[in-house]
Amino acid sequence: MTTPNEDILEWSVHPLRERPGRAVGTCLIILACGLLVAVAVGDPTGGVLAGGAAILFLILMLNRFFLPSYYRMDGVGIAVRHPIGTRSLRWVDLRRFPHNESGGYLSTRERGGMFDSRGISVLFAGRGDEIVPWIKSAMDRSREAGE
Fold first, then answer.
1. pLDDT one-digit tens code per residue, 62-99
2. What is the DSSP code string of 91-132?
3. What is the torsion angle, in degrees rounded to the nearest 10, for the CA atoms of residue 121, residue 122, residue 126 and residue 128?
4. Which of 34, 101, 102, 125 is most buried, taking the most CB atoms under 10 A from its CB?
């Protein structure tokens, strides 16, 4: 996704380590959900299996919280590698970048919506002052080149 001598920005994000208080709370809620499922099933063997399955399901759904994600930006686009896959987008395909101090969403659609899943969620890991201008500049350059 890059050519030689090109600027590259890489960083990793691991919310579990960055927010230990939320990590403890999240783990307690997941364990409580597993316990509730186990009790609701009633059968001791089936309850343990169902509760364990519920805990595993919740951990998998929250994998980007529990495990690190790696981001890489270059002159062509952005790529993210997280535990259950990778995703990359080219700057020329991006249309929107709503963001706040902790992260943002790079979208290929002009307007957002509840079911906009074509983009990439970007977490800044405290580096927003560096990452946001980088993204805006790359998107502006690709728009200028495309016109």
1. 998 999 999 999 999 999 998 888 999 999 999 999 99
2. GGG--B--B-SSEEEEBSSSS--TT--SSEEEE-TT-HHHHH
3. -120
4. 34
- Helix (H) or strand (E) holding 78, with range, is strand 77-82
- Residue pLDDT, tens place only, 61-70: 999 899 999 9
120-123/9-13 β-pairing: unpaired
**Helical (H) or strand (E) element with 66:** helix 63-66
User: Tokens 């790079």 appear where?
Assistant: 106
**Number of helices followed by number of strands (H, E) in the chain:** 5, 6
**Could you give the C-alpha distances from 76 to 12, 106, 109, 125, 126, in angstroms and in order?**
19, 14, 18, 22, 24
The tokens for 11 are 């960083």
Report whether 12 contacts 125 (CB < 8 A): yes
How is residue 42 annotated by DSSP? -
Q: Which residue positions in the chain have pLDDT lower than 50?
A: 1-5
Q: For helices 44-61 and 20-41, what crossing angle results, to 10°?
A: 150
